[in-house]
## 1
Amino acid sequence: MVHGLWSVATAVAAVTIAGTPAVAGAPVTYHRTVTLGTLGGASSAPQGLNDERAVVGWAETGDGRTHPFLWRDGRMTDLGTLDDGDGGWGIAAAVNRWGTVAGQSRGPAGTRAVRWQNGGITDLGTLGGDYSFATAINDSGTIAGASTTPDGSLHAFVWRRGTMTDLGVPGAREAFAEDIDNRGRIVGWRAAGDGTAAAYLWERGTVTFLPALGQGGRARAINERGDVAGAVLAGGSSRAARWRGTHLELLGNLPGGNAAGALAVNDDGVILGVGNVAPGSAEDHAFLWRHGTLVDLSTSGVPNSAVGLDDRLEIIGTVPNAAGDGPLAALFVPAG
């Protein structure tokens, strides 16, 4: 393991605050739902996808275990775990354009960040602790995630060419890495000892905290243009946000709602998120943000379980399984 000394930059921001935008008629119509199946069990759920329509996640096996899957060309494949016994389980979190997958699996030594490539599984190790997990992978095979350290704290890492490196996010009780682009830029967030969260961008050893409104933020995704999507806390509510450099833009709320968060952003700058439709309501709707407008996807059949978006505006999420007692991984395909 390599531990480096990192420089820290603090961003000073301009902020754009959008009001509650009108919902456009239907700029995107989702006409087809593709259910991805399971590995012999009842349930499954996606975690990530690439622009070649490969989807990864977890699925139940016939004996009730949770195994990682890769779905492409209409077929779900069990990626395997570090432990082939009853205690083995795994979750695939992200897939790059070449079909290399990152995630986590439990083996004899505990739960570890792993890479699946060419039919094999690689334990990526830890930062000296007993637990790690991977969340993102870029096209060169660089992986981002988080690991415990010898003192039990959780630190964000980058794994490259066999070496796991602590990102050195300062002031963190816990630090999470959420996404990585093909330039190796990593976004995520850290939780401080007082419970506040701060979104950050890591690039070439430098951690830059992204602007917020004094109440914290979380960065969830980055595209190849450097657009960062996530959420900030404003007035006690989560607000969907986009960062471009040091500029923070609040994306607004769905009509009637007062809370939202962004989950993914594609290379065209279209953002996927989830928001409520009434203050205090447990009912959330998935939305797309494009051309400055929030589009409620509930009328298009896309559920609030949406978690990922590709450059063709295909969305991954879940629908109820056949028994109605669990999720089933699904791909939502737009018309045209």
## 2
Amino acid sequence: MKRLFRWLLVAAILAVAIAGIVFLPDLRYRKLANEYPQALAAAKAAGIPTNAEEFAPAPIPDEENAAIELKVAMELYDSDRSAISDRVNEIKKAVEDPSATVPAPTPDMVQIMNICRTAAKKPKCQFTKDWSDPINTTFPEYAPLKNFARMLDADMIIKARAGQWDIVHENALAVQKLADFSASDQVLIGGLVSVAIKSINYSSLVQIVDESNAHPRILEIIEDVCAKNQNIKPSHIFRGEAYMSMYAAEFAADKQRHKEFEEMMTGWGGMSDTSTYSSGTLIDKLKDLFSRSTDEETPRPRSFTARRAQATTLVQLTTEMYQPILQGDLRWEEAAKSLDYENRINNMQPSVENELAVYIFPMFDQAFLSFRVSELRAQLLETAVEIHRYHAAKGRFPKTGDIVLPTDPFSGKDLLLKSSATGFQLYSVGANGKDDGGIYKNPVSNRDIDLVYQFRMPDTVFSGR
């Protein structure tokens, strides 16, 4: 009897030990996992889109939707993408040198540019997207739109040399509208493509000013482009980023779909193919997280309870970070302070429940800088027009104090102006917040440069440090 009792006692101890091994780790996450419904309700109340119905924009009538025309242009582009891209590159390279012979655009390119000019007259653009599955949502239109902008941009320089200012004007406005259309999806990558297209436009306008000796018509065109410029708001872009986070949390919190989510990570290409932009690098990060093996230093949790706890943390952090941005009309520098991404993530204790939240959020620093620089370049162009007009009226370029200069968002002080008999430099101190003397090219450090509008001012004047 005693022997049987001892065996039963050993069996009971083993059973308790096994139960502890199996169930005790889940107890650590259970309370947080059970808070998921409350976290989701709080996110909804804060205006965070939690499903496709809440996020997807209302349909646009065809008569207002530029996507109708742009799809036709994209079909032409796709019919001979490689040849068209090569010709665009050849033309772009040639127009940089006023003495070079510029290759003629192909018939398809001419037709594409005409379509873009027509599409630009429509107020909005909405390409068909399945927002119920944002992980597999791609944005194949971004690469063509950027190339369409490059076509129009090169054509704008060619037409300016021929004195065809009406077409220059039409092209400049069309490129600006392509930038606006690229940002219509409310996702970060769309905003960054928009900024890239605006940069193409601004660079060409500056080149035309220089080549035409600040012809009055190009100054008028710049004024019109800047007046119609639509700066991208943080509340617009981060609505999509918040939805992506909520969608990932939904998978992790669902007992059936959480396995589906892990399977979906297999083979995901993310942003590796820039010809078909996808919905973000966050998916690549998730793929890495879910593919970890158990022998790694921080293995992925295998229990549903732990995964649901992760989902709760992700929803809570998404709400905390994005609510002030989505509900306010913040500028980019204000949004950066509100997100405080780096400090939030760095101060989170390393743990399984925090791990998904740490992985899901992309690095925003470069994005914030890109949007701020884009706004500043438009401001530099507007002010440069005023300086050129001052020169036309008085026969000299203004010095500091002769005109009112806008505030430099990177320093909080006035933009800097240096002028001579041959030209001027108008510039911002840039991301490092330091006046580097008007240097806009530095082979040592890209951070030690200023954001410069320069007209006929030799590089040697301000090349030293």
## 3
Amino acid sequence: MSSPYQGALTCVTCQIVFETGDAHREHYKTDWHRYNLKRKIINLLPVDRPTFESRILNQQIKENEENSKSSIYCTICKKSYNSQKSFDSHTSSKQHKTLALQSDNEHKDIGVPAAKKIVKPVENKLVEESDDEYEDVDDDEEWGEVVSENNPIVNNICLFCPQSSENLLQNIKHMSDTHSFFIPDIEYLVDMKGLLVYLGEKVCQGFMCLWCNDSGKNFHSIESAQAHMIDKGHTKMIHEGEALLEYSDFYDYSSSYPADTSVDDYRIVEDVNSQLILPSGTRIGKRSLMRYYRQNLNPNHDWEAMKETKLNKVINHYRHVGWTGTFPAAAARKARDLKVMRQVQTKMYMQLGVKANKFQKHFRQQVNF
């Protein structure tokens, strides 16, 4: 008897199953998924979504209590921040640095933190922000709550040495030129920033070698782990065997599947839980999401296109230094291996769920209403 989840899309880290490919891809962008990735590095079990949301709510309540009396204001960008952490992330953004160079405040008060002052709490209101500010938030502040402060990638620092770069692309170029570090199967990568941040967590929190992984020597500091990788020539990322399953959340090998598979069927209906797509192409959304449909967002910003452009820049740099790409046969082999491992894991999850159901000795209504 086959599993009811046979061939279904699953998240290995969060241990959940998806009905559509779009829901599967959108899940990878959530803070819940990234939080479980961080727990996975230190060998902790994942938490379910209600538990994660309750922890976030408790953390927000705690931060609101600490910042209820004052906030930090940036005189250059004319924006206020409720915590020192968010303000520090803002000051390191490209938008703030550009405006700081154009501002006269730096010339008037040299040596004085003119970008910071205490202001009274203001009422909640809608504020129109430029598109560049949203771009910087996506690059610099998105990972603030789920990633360690000393993560080298978030701080634009090399994974293998203390070298600092201006941005993520320059950091990737440094690692490839200096340490010969190349992201494997980059053509099938769907979350480049997420993968690099995950590698940064393994180095700065787990003190792990990216090539030895769990099977190698244990280190007690980030410096000793980096020295090992440089001395042994392990400035590379293992992406075979069990490591395929570990990094599967960041890759999509569907383009390497044979043409007769039904993987592309998941792309026919987009976001089936919130939209209905008619044969004419018209989209009908839920009434409960009307507040989001009415938002006046910039239609010219295509975030996926921006991420794809950044990925293409990395690919072009790799080709410039002699990288020839991934062979289709090798990618198809990895896709088959990954599919088998996911099927085995799904079967184990089902057996574990059946075993857990046997612990229930009495009937309990499985609804909340």
